[in-house]
Design a protein that fits this description.
alpha/beta; TIM Barrel; two-stranded antiparallel ribbon; 12 strands
């Protein structure tokens, strides 16, 4: 299992923990991943990081489909990969949620699974440069159809001028079983959102259904599965758990519509259905502190590594043996990076 570093999107001020990233590279971290929502984008920071580092791989987790055309994302990826050193760039993509897709990007929610299928197909065609790119999809077509609204009728298939890396991996960030199956069918990996040690086994049959539809020989053995764990070095485990609850309450209670919230669904699948309903009810009523207090301690502790270094080392084996290809460390400070760095390869 390889170890990675996750970076959040910017809040009120744009900042990148460059010294922490450089230290992570020294300690043997495999990759660093950027995020985006309706804040800083996931692409620009990777170009900056790539210029200041030498080896650590660069990934998006996730680049939102609605933010760019597939051609533009392919251009961004192969440009950064060429500048930073071939083989460092990885594309994690996802649909985000309808509130962001329609409210921020002004795009229709449409049929996300069809859009992801078209998006991945177009990116892979562009990167491989086997010919001018043409794709007639259910959600996205290239070139733009001559009979579509506003068309000039002059579009024609084109081939990338840049001879980029044809093997930049494309991974899907998703939480629904249908789209996890789709990741195994069309992508190079799955960026999971709520996996904890012991939970991967329930998704293996779903992944195998996707692999069965492929013709390129992709199997579970060479398919990337990336998980994420929050790390907090502290002598007060309870305080660390409580500090993480508002973030969980925000996502379970307010990140999505009442009847379409992937994070709430994930909490239910993890065995906390009553808590998930209560958190959403309180959060949507504006009682955010009560919603945070309703998040179960075990839910937080199971998906995190919190406590003194000895407790983190003791619990590390559960993650190391979880079946993940990459484990990304989220919300770390410098001390957490040092502790996790000491565990790489162990």
């Amino acid at each position: 299992m390889k170890v990675a570093l996750s970076l959040n999107y910017a809040h009120a001020k744009m900042e990148l923990p460059i010294q922490r990233i450089l230290r992570a590279e020294q300690l043997g971290f495999d990759s660093v991943w950027t995020a985006e929502t309706y804040s800083s984008d996931a692409i620009t920071p990777l170009a900056f990081i790539g210029a200041l580092t030498k080896r650590i791989r660069l990934g998006t987790s996730i680049a939102a489909l609605a933010a760019r055309t597939p051609a533009n994302l392919a251009m961004c990826a192969q440009t950064i990969d060429a500048m930073a050193g071939e083989g460092r760039m990885m594309l994690g993509i996802g649909v985000s949620g309808p509130q962001i897709v329609e409210g921020w990007h002004g795009q229709p929610w449409g049929k996300p699974a069809d859009r992801m299928r078209d998006y991945v197909a177009i990116i892979k065609k562009i990167l491989k440069r086997e010919g001018p790119v043409s794709h007639q999809g259910r959600e996205i077509s290239l070139p733009y159809p001559k009979d579509a609204p506003g068309s000039s009728g002059l579009g024609k298939p084109l081939k990338s001028i840049l001879h980029g890396n044809p093997n930049i991996p494309v991974m899907l960030g998703t939480a629904t079983k249908g789209n996890i199956r789709l990741a195994a069918e069309i992508a190079d990996g799955w960026l999971s959102m709520h996996l904890v040690p012991g939970s991967l086994k329930e998704y293996i049959p779903v992944l195998e259904e996707g692999f069965a539809k492929r013709t390129d020989g992709m199997t579970l053995k060479n398919f990337v599965i990336r998980g994420s764990v929050s790390v907090k070095v502290t002598d007060d485990v309870k305080k660390a758990i409580d500090a993480a609850k508002p973030h969980v309450a925000l996502y379970v209670g307010g990140m999505g519509a009442k009847d379409k919230n992937f994070h709430k669904d994930a909490m239910i699948r993890r065995g906390f259905p009553e808590a998930a309903e209560r958190i959403q009810e309180l959060f949507m009523a504006g009682r955010k502190d009560e919603a945070a207090a309703a998040v179960p301690d075990d839910y937080i502790d199971d998906e995190g590594l919190m406590g003194p270094p000895d407790r983190i080392r003791e619990r590390w084996g559960r993650w190391r043996d979880s079946g993940l290809t990459i484990l990304s460390i989220s919300t770390p400070n410098d001390e957490a990076v040092e502790v996790i760095g000491s565990l790489i390869g162990k």
